[in-house]
Amino acid sequence: MNAELTRGSNRLLTVKDISLNFGGVHALTGISFDVLANEVCSIIGPNGAGKSSMLNVLNGVYRPQEGTITLNGVEKRRWSPQQVAKEGIARTFQNIALFKGMSTLDNIMTGR
What is the CATH number of domain 11-110? Predict the structure, then answer.
């Protein structure tokens, strides 16, 4: 993530009341959290809990029906996945075929 901070705040990312529906299926309902400067966060849960859907909302792949996402003090309502990536938000996928001889961080950064 871009390390620039909002004036007077150490919140880099604020997710507030995100809801995402696929037809009649409620994939995400009222999800809220903050990511602070120098903080490492994880999204965990069982299959079907909405982890991938939340990541796709954060990456701009899905647009939530409700809620807001603020990155470095700027609301990212209509950002494309490319704009989100330029701001430093990216994801990687579980992969058992990693590049041999590369560190974990190097493997992750290669997927960026």
Answer: 3.40.50.300
